[in-house]
Design a protein that fits this description.
Blueprint (H helix, E strand, L loop, with lengths): L2 H23 L5 H8 L3 H29 L1 H21 L3 H15 L2 H12 L6 H28 L2 H18 L15 H9 L2 H18 L5 H7 L4 H25 L5 H21 L3 H26 L7 H28 L3 H28 L3
GO molecular function, one term: transmembrane transporter activity
Organism: Actinophytocola xanthii
Keywords: Cell membrane, Membrane, Transmembrane, Transmembrane helix
Length: 387
């Protein structure tokens, strides 16, 4: 693949990552509006987000098996086509129960998007220069997250929350067609049974560490994010304004992704993780102390910066710990990440429903500290062993 083809491929992968992240986060600013229209509580509607994250995580290993046999590009196209169907079902849901089911199925379909893109980059880009395109992919994810909280909140206020779900469904359908131009990497199909690939990853100690860290990262850096617009709304802000302010997260990821890219050759991966983990800890200290609009926005920015430093480095690590079973390793990484996020959404939903925001941030602070320490030490030892 020449540089021109690689650039085109990366742009298509970025568009896919953007659409997936937009779809994943857009329910956050619409929780209050959806609960009012469908006659359920915020806690009940938040189960749609939890179902999305859980199905997104569980489906990873299934898509990994499909990807190894069908190919990276065909798998992404199939998943996007299915996501378009269930996205439209989400837009037409007439009750909270139906919405939870529809969002879960949509999440299961979008589950193939970003992990397949990660594996595609792993298959086509040497590890020594891999973090740069992975950071670009994360940047697209950040833009999608940022526009989701602003755009979906505005659509819910001025048109309908159903329009937001329909928009990503149509985008997924378009991408499913356009991505036929993406060249399939050579030699990416693995004839080994999925259980063999799973065994290879699960007996690999560095891979197991990365998976445990991904679970905690999902709880810490993604779990509470769904509820930030609700926290801001509780302080008296409208749904639209709360959604707009929450875009600070995506904007921070976008800005600090460039910083990470610049520092990739100056700082070791362990130090990048340490910076990211420290920013997350600082964010939750601030959020534990105050839930007013300004501290919440500042905390959101710190979390976005922490994600930029930590997650891009963790992603790169995940593509390298088991290269012979890369699709399985990356899929398990995503499974653990979004399982942690789903656990967070399930745990925090009842607390948010009664306005106990301090308890949410205390729990995440308690998890953020060991995450930063263990991830930093673990990545440092991985490097010293010659990986």
């Amino acid at each position: 693949m020449d540089s021109g083809e690689r650039t085109t491929s990366l742009r298509l992968l970025q568009a896919t990552a953007f659409t997936s992240s937009f779809d994943r986060l857009m329910i956050a600013p619409m929780l209050v509006v959806i609960s009012a229209e469908l006659g359920g509580s915020v806690e009940a509607v938040s189960q749609a987000a939890a179902a999305y994250f859980l199905c997104y995580g569980i489906a990873q290993i299934c898509w990994a098996a499909v990807s190894d046999r069908l190919g990276r590009v065909r798998t992404m196209r199939l998943a996007l086509a299915c996501a378009a169907v269930f996205g439209l079902v989400s837009a037409l849901a007439q009750g909270v129960g139906w919405l939870v089911v529809a969002r879960g199925l949509t999440g299961a379909c979008f589950a193939a998007a970003i992990p397949s893109a990660l594996v595609y980059i792993g298959d086509t880009v040497p590890v020594r220069v891999r973090q740069a395109p992975l950071t670009d992919l994360m940047t697209s994810t950040a833009v999608g997250m940022s526009l989701a909280t602003a755009g979906a909140g505005a659509l819910a206020d001025f048109t309908s929350w159903r329009v937001a779900f329909a928009v990503t469904a149509v985008a997924a359908a378009v991408l499913a067609v356009v991505m036929r131009r993406l060249p399939e990497p050579d030699g990416n199909r693995d004839a080994a049974p999925i259980w063999s690939s799973l065994r290879t990853v699960l007996v690999n100690r560095p891979a197991l560490l990365v998976l445990v860290l991904a679970l905690t990262e999902g709880l810490v850096l993604l779990g509470p994010l769904t509820f930030f617009p609700v926290v801001l709304h509780a302080s008296g802000l409208s749904v639209t304004v709360a959604g707009l302010l929450t875009t600070a997260y995506g904007a921070a990821v976008l800005v600090f992704a460039r910083v990470v890219k610049a520092f990739t050759r100056r700082l070791t991966p362990a130090r990048l993780i340490l910076v990211g983990g420290s920013l997350a800890v600082l964010a939750y200290v601030l959020l534990t102390l105050s839930h007013a609009a300004v501290p919440v926005v500042v905390g959101t920015v710190l979390l976005g910066a922490g994600w930029a430093f930590m997650h891009s480095t963790m992603q790169t690590w995940a593509t390298d710990v088991a290269p012979e079973s890369r699709a399985t390793a990356v899929s398990l990484f995503a499974t653990m990440l979004f399982t942690g996020s789903a656990v967070g959404a399930a745990i925090f939903g009842p607390m948010v429903d009664v306005g106990d925001f301090r308890q949410v941030f205390l729990i995440t602070l308690a998890a953020a500290v060991p995450l930063a320490v263990v991830a930093t030490v673990g990545r440092g030892r991985y490097a010293t062993k010659g990986h």
